[in-house]
């Protein structure tokens, strides 16, 4: 292998007659599926956050309210982390 040749991970993985566009299409499809999963997870976390904040606001005691606010804070941190990770 030559040292000055660019790294091409797809080179040698295709037999004659196949082209690189199939490799690129698979890569794009995987990326799209991953983005959809991330969006679904973010949506679920946002819904969970809203439910926890509602429970905290409707809580009868201070201890119960603090528990729900604390859990909502953890969910908010996770939402922030996932939102910036894109």
> What quaternary form is this?
single chain
Instruction: Tell me the fraction of residues in β-strands, as a range.
Output: under 5%
Helix content: over 70%
Q: How far is the N terminus from the C terminus?
A: 35 Å
How many E strands? 0
- Enumerate how many helices there are, as a single number: 2
Number of domains: 1
Structural write-up:
- With 86 residues, the protein is mainly alpha-helical.
- The chain has helices at 20-58, 62-85.
- Helix 1 (20-58) runs antiparallel to helix 2.
- It is 73% helix and 0% strand.
- It has one domain (20-85).
List keywords for this structure.
single chain, 86 residues, mainly alpha, rod-shaped
Briefly say what this structure is.
With 86 residues, this protein is an all-alpha fold. It is 73% helix and 0% strand.
What is the topology?
Blueprint: H1 20-58, H2 62-85
